[in-house]
Write a structure and sequence with these properties.
Layout: E1 10-13, E2 32-33, E3 41-42, E4 47-55, E5 58-65, E6 83-89, E7 101-104, E8 111-117, E9 122-131, E10 136-145, E11 157-162, E12 170-175, E13 180-185, E14 194-199, E15 211-214, E16 222-229, E17 232-238, E18 243-248, E19 254-260, E20 265-268, E21 272-279, E22 282-289, E23 300-304, E24 315-318, E25 323-332, E26 335-343, E27 355-356, E28 366-372, E29 378-384, E30 394-400, E31 406-411, E32 414-415, E33 418-426, E34 432-440, E35 443-451, E36 463-468, E37 475-478, E38 482-488, E39 492-499, E40 510-514, E41 516-523, E42 526-533, E43 541-549, E44 561-566, E45 568-576, E46 579-589, E47 592-602, E48 608-616, E49 618-625, E50 631-637, E51 647-652, E52 662-665, E53 671-678, E54 682-689, E55 702-709, E56 720-723, E57 729-736, E58 742-750, E59 757-765, H1 781-789, H2 808-816
Antiparallel strand pairs: 1-58, 2-59, 3-32, 4-5, 5-6, 6-7, 8-9, 9-10, 10-11, 12-13, 13-14, 14-15, 16-17, 17-18, 18-19, 20-21, 21-22, 22-23, 24-25, 25-26, 26-27, 28-29, 29-30, 30-31, 33-34, 34-35, 35-36, 37-38, 38-39, 39-40, 41-42, 42-43, 43-44, 45-46, 46-47, 47-48, 49-50, 50-51, 51-52, 53-54, ...
Helix pairs in contact: 1-2
Length: about 800
């Protein structure tokens, strides 16, 4: 799906000319990242299914990663599913890559990574999804990586496909010192045999088509794995009789007949194998020759089974001198460890019962994999929480040295903060305040930062308002003198006022009212906060509102006003003169996804006015008001589960009458979650758009927009793209002013280093032609010469973005507006 980060928050600025009536799209600025929030820490989202392979003096760890699946959207669409990322560890187990290297971040699901070293580079293989004319197929794909972390294949290699099944129940990779061999087994009829395909060190296929290693039969093979020693391959599997091994030459010719093996878990060295299995009440193991002869047919006891609940997950590896076997160990109820036992090359167990690697596991730990460490010993990787409430899974690394002494454990899946769920509002002189949710693993923060009319950061770093788990998307408003940012912890709304100069007014957040899904509006020194809340029964949900005095932060209402609902969601609030308009989504019942869009007036004294039904089949309404009191409400049609969603809109006039519903966008695919702004001349409606999806399961969204006149005429019937590249873009919101300027903010997933996360991105359009420095009605070489004459100064005529310096960003703005 989406490549998660130009991921998590995208920003863009939209402006429409006062006299514009044409359908020609406006000129947009290029998008740019909001700076100042860059600290590297553990990544948000789930990281699972690690794999590990030593390569020379370093180790590569690869895993499946859902950091691009973070979404503030109401239907929870996951943008890019699981992607693949990797980091290199040095000889001491320390990160060589501050943030991970993106391996596969296209749409669809990339999962089940495996990695193998051939002496000069790694091959990373995984299961991915590939579109077909009618549906999709599952494909085993691969890419090579050099020791320097450079991907050697510009695009993934398509190794094996499974047109008859939705997964590969068997999948493995090994290297015999020359070629890699990738094997797979489909689950459908005609695809149940085990096939293999070799890849040479230079990334070319040795086999033009896959070769059948085990023929399909009436049963599937289980516990399939692949190993290599002595220049040949060993395929192990369970058939309808038991566990077997089958040798193949480097050219994939069968060697001898299948033979019985005692277990399913193998490790390999250059000259032989080590196998573990359960014998009575013990986990046992034995070296095994290339020809299949066990050194100890009954096995040597490694550990008692009483503390190993999942013996099938015991992993073994060779460190160049000794064998190692590792497992998840239960110390007592609710107390778990990773342990590993050192085993001499001849099979003698050096540390019976194993040694603790020094990490307290949670009950969610999974995916244990090991390899010999660079300096001898064993290195384990696994997926686990960090022990913080509601923390997602991260990938951990822990090791024992050659003397079986623990060397420490650490989580290794890093990223810049995931910036998402942004909102913004226009304050004095076109300045905007942007507020958003910033997340690392197990912790979220509500941040805000002032930007100029053109999106230039006015504060070097964001202002932190609060931190903790379970924080919602924030909302922000301006009351004419100050800002208010509100959020919820899932139970109650809190907020902080921020002064015009960006300083914090409330050192301790204001307690506002119970509820979630917060929104806020402001005018004339008063804020109006709204939320959804279930005061008595969780399935009965209402919209509540409350006035807050801007000067003091004190509530102006004794209690929150029940505006309406029963099964209500996603409120919004705007100021209209001395009144407020609150919109929301009214579901037909607690378990019925169908809904209507509703609007209510709230009087200046906080009492409830008229309520207006806007549309059956209306979802997530958002509104903005023109200077004459006309309100435009935009919402999407159909439930989120529908394959098609359009953006429609309806005007509410100052006298409370309602105009007809009209379509803003009915493009192919889904159009979701609109936002609305007024620029002094026209409304701008922007939304998340999937018209460019590459396949039906491509959930990446672009951001599109259209202008709507004050009289309700659609000026851009096909819309225009605000953000439309190959990465995920999730619209945050829009903020306009009365000089024709609109600034939009969104989350963009940036999969590349150093971000590997969602970042807030901004863009704008300026119909006031600030770039027309000479004032002759066009932007051309004369304006360029004037700007270069102001270079490095603070001259207001050349400082197009209002950040105090005439520099490259101003030049980019001028070039974007070139006539």
């Amino acid at each position: 799906m989406l490549r998660l980060l130009r991921t998590s928050v995208v920003a863009a600025t939209l402006v429409a000319a006062a006299t514009s009536v044409s359908a020609d799209p406006p000129t947009l600025s290029s998008a740019f990242v909001l700076p100042g929030n860059t600290a590297i820490d553990l990544a948000a989202g789930q990281q699972t299914a690690p794999c590990i392979a030593r390569g020379g003096d370093r180790t590569l760890v690869v895993w499946a990663d859902a950091r691009s699946a973070l979404s503030s959207s109401s239907d929870g669409y996951d943008q890019s599913g699981t992607d693949l990322f990797a980091v290199r560890l040095d000889a001491n187990g320390l990160l060589m890559d501050e943030t991970p290297i993106a391996i596969a971040t296209t749409y669809g699901i990339q999962s089940k990574p495996l990695v193998s070293w051939n002496g000069s580079s790694w091959l990373i293989a995984w299961e991915g999804q590939t579109p077909t004319p009618s549906y999709l197929t599952y494909t085993l794909q691969a890419r090579r990586m050099s020791p320097d972390g450079v991907l050697l294949d510009s695009q993934p290699l398509n190794v094996l496909s499974s047109p008859t099944s939705n997964t590969f129940p068997a999948f493995a990779v090994a290297n015999n010192g020359s070629d890699w061999l990738v094997i797979g087994q489909g689950a459908g009829a005609g695809d149940g045999g085990i096939k293999g395909r070799r890849i040479a060190a230079d990334g070319t296929f040795v086999d033009a088509t896959p070769i059948t290693l085990l023929a399909e039969t009436y049963y599937l093979y289980f516990f399939v794995d692949l190993h290599a020693a002595g220049g040949e391959y060993l395929l192990t599997y369970q058939d309808n009789v038991g566990m077997k091994g089958r040798r193949f030459s480097a050219s994939l010719a069968p060697i001898g007949s299948p033979f019985v093996v005692p277990g399913s878990r193998f490790a390999d060295s250059d000259s032989g194998y080590f196998v573990t299995w359960v014998n009575g009440t013990n986990l046992v193991g034995s070296p095994m020759s290339v020809t299949g002869t066990l050194a100890y047919p009954a096995g040597k006891v490694i550990a008692a089974m009483s503390n190993i609940p999942w013996p099938g997950t015991a992993e073994s590896a060779w460190d160049g001198t000794d064998w190692w076997t590792s497992w998840f160990h239960v110390v007592s109820y609710g107390e778990y460890r990773v342990r590993a036992a050192k085993i001499a090359a001849n099979g003698t167990v050096v540390t019976p019962g194993g040694v603790d690697l020094g990490h307290d596991l949670t009950s969610f730990a999974s995916g244990l994999r090991i390899d010999g460490d660079v300096n001898g010993g064993v290195r384990a990787v696994f997926s686990d929480e960090i022990g913080v409430s509601e923390a997602p899974l991260d990938i951990w690394s822990a090791a024992l040295d050659a003397d079986a002494m623990p060397t420490g454990a650490a989580a290794i899946t890093t990223a810049s903060p995931a910036e998402r769920a942004a909102d913004l509002i226009t304050g004095p002189n076109g300045t905007r305040l942007v507020a958003w949710l910033s997340s690392h693993s197990g912790i979220s923060r509500i941040l805000c930062q002032r930007v100029s009319r053109y999106g230039a950061a006015l504060d070097p770093v964001p202002l932190e308002l609060t931190s903790g788990p379970s924080l919602s998307a924030p909302a922000v408003a301006w009351d004419g003198e100050r800002y208010l940012v509100v959020w919820s912890n899932g139970l109650a709304l809190s907020g902080c006022r921020v002064a015009e100069d960006g300083t914090l007014i409330d050192e301790v957040p204001l307690a506002i009212m119970p509820g979630f899904q917060p929104e806020v509006a402001g005018a004339n020194g008063i804020f109006y906060a709204v939320c959804a809340h279930s005061p008595s029964y969780p399935q009965n949900r209402y919209i509540f509102g409350k006035r807050i005095d801007g000067a003091t932060g004190a509530p102006l209402d004794a209690g929150a006003l029940n505006i309406g609902g029963t099964f209500a969601n996603y409120p919004d609030a705007i100021a209209v003169g001395d009144r407020w308009v609150v919109t929301w989504q009214s579901n037909y019942s607690h378990d019925n996804p169908q809904a209507s869009a509703v609007a209510s007036f709230v009087n200046a004294n906080g009492t409830l006015g008229a309520t207006v039904g806007l549309s059956a089949g209306g979802f997530v309404p958002k509104a903005a008001a023109a200077g004459d009191g006309t309100v435009l409400v935009a919402f999407n049609t159909n439930s989120p589960a529908n394959a098609n969603n359009d953006v429609v809109a309806r005007r509410i006039l100052a006298d409370g009458s309602v105009g007809p519903t009209f379509t803003v966008s009915s493009a192919f695919g889904k159009q979701l979650h609109p936002s609305v702004a007024w620029n002094g001349n026209e409304f701008i409606v922007a939304w998340d758009d999937r018209r460019n999806q590459a396949a039906f399961y491509d959930y990446r969204t672009d951001v599109y927009a259209a202008r709507v006149s004050a009289g309700g005429s659609l000026l851009d019937p096909t819309g225009f793209a605000v953000f439309n590249d190959t990465d995920a873009r999730i619209l945050g919101g829009l903020a306009g002013n009365d000089t024709g300027s609109v600034l939009a903010v969104a989350s963009a997933f940036e999969p590349e280093q150093p971000w590997t996360s969602y970042r807030l991105t901004l863009a704008y359009i300026d119909p006031d032609s600030a770039a027309d420095i000479t004032g002759d009605g066009i932007v051309n070489g004369a304006d360029l010469a004037a700007l270069l004459g102001f270079w490095g100064s603070s001259n207001a005529a050349g400082d197009l973005n209002g950040d105090g310096t005439v520099d490259a960003r101003d030049l980019a703005m001028l070039l974007a507006a070139w006539s």
